[in-house]
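Quarterly update from the structural biology core.
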Amino acid sequence: MEFQSICNFSQELDTSLLDRVVLAFFTGSGPERQAAQAALTQFQEHPESWTRVPEILQKSSYPQTKYIGLQILEKVISTRWKSLPDGQRQGIRNFLITITIEIASDEVTARKEKIYLNKLNLAMVQVLEQEWPHNWPTFISELVESSSTSLPLCENNMVLLRLLSEEIFDFSADQLTQAKAKELKLQLSSELSMEVLKEASKVSLLRATLETLGRFLSWIPLGYIFETESLQLFVERFLESAEYRNLTLKCAAEIASLPQSDVSMYGAKLKMFFTSVMTTINKLIPPSTDIASAYANASDAGQEMVVALALFLANFFSKHLPIMEGDVDREALINAHFYLIKISQVDEREVFKICLEYWLILLVGLYDEVSMIPLGTDLSRLKLRKDIYREVLSNLRLVAVGKMVKPEEVLVVENEEGEVVREYLKETIVLYKSMRELMVFLTHLDVVDVEMILTQKMAAQIDGSEWSWGNLNTLCWAIGSISGAMDEDTEKRFLVLVTRELLGLVEQKRGKDNKAMIAANIMYIVGQYPRFLKAHWRFLRTVVNKLFEFMHETHEGVQDMACDTYMKITTTCGRQFVVRQPDEKEPFVDEILRTVNRITVNLSPQQIPTFYEATGVIIAEALNRAQQERLIASLMELPNGAVSHSSSSLC
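Predicted structure, tokenized:
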């Protein structure tokens, strides 16, 4: 019953008893813990519980009790603030200011009470959401003024500003009217000062300031960025320093992401800023650095730097590429793109996605320029943007082939234990579509270079110099992704060569795992080129017979993929099976139907329906009703016979 006395609001609160109740709830057990929970729930739900918060925060000696007090306060601010009398709202505001200043002004206390201080800041942000700027227009000026009284307080004020910015401009953007947002931005930014960045020397304060500034850069007036010492300070004071480097690069990435239409009048300064940043980056990460290896062995801070650099480069080039392309001397432009090439090789999917997004923007622009040129124009006489990036794009093709991800059609893969198994569709399909788009644009821009790279890569599989399942997979997925991007003659020569090499590789390699992996890649590639298959009957016939062979292969996933590829080919090339091809005695479908039993004998009950459905797709292409009915009867002869035999057995 003692615990329940904390819920008696007619007498003063015994904070030491409240501490014991909270302690019993968090560390006790059995009936004691249940009693503590019941008392705390009743206390927190009481409509007057918020009036106890000042006493709790000032007198409690147990941190968890203070956190509960702040939870009560946050709840009343978010649910009942408008209904409280002005005096009570002012009292809560003043109390939060007093206790925050008290803790934040002393460095030792602030460090010791870091979690508690952060919760106080969050409560203050909740009040500001309700009160600022209309009921508390002087908040920012008061904050700036108080910052001069103490470095630890100044540091906490920066944190408070950052939290306010995140809450108002990130999380509450949908609720803000345009006019109110503008008013808030102007008031916030007009009070900001460069004094901390210029004069302060305390590391934690400067870090907090850079972090806060990083949140503001996307919306503060552009004059604050381009007409002050900001850009110079970023590069000269902070970028080379390990303590501030990553935060500075994040600020640079925010500046780089500003829309070109907004910063057009500052083009020269933006260009100078970019060049200055890259000059420093060249010193920190020499151009010869193997960034992928360095990233794999780097600390968290080192990896964070690579991500921040990727964002800076991708943002800048996505929005402001023309101001760098306009230079006669394009060394800085190409140098920066080679940094992106190296970052694209990092074995981290999220890092690659940052780069990929920009590469697609670049390639679409280059392709659009070429596609506007009238047919028959001698391109060698034109100065095209794609020529600026010739070497960059060739390197990008190598990276793209090596980073190609699994398409949904591929079922046979290597698992984490190094075994060849069937894999079910995962989350890679969206990334694959972007990668396929990348490969198609790269092919359109220089089909000769793509063919040379893929042919050389295939030769390296045959001679064993680059042989591995992973390398073979990405190469074949890349080959499959560019179907239709070559002209027919080039596609024919290329595909015949690739298929011949892969079939030779099946014969060359020993072991069922190797053969299964190569077979999966052959099936994937041929299924990707319906235009070629339609135009080359002998090749199509050979491919389908090879699929029928794979339907007898019991290695996991091979039969599934053979059936799925057969379905894919019949869907796109069905008509070729029902007409009599030159030098053939009959349509190929008749030969298939005569050997259905032999083809399907090793398929599982789950796979046989796929075979029948695919063959049905062929029959749907029959030239006339009579042929269609004859073919359906032939296809169903085996299952009908099985049903008939089963029925007679039952009798």
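Strands lie at 412-414, 420-422.
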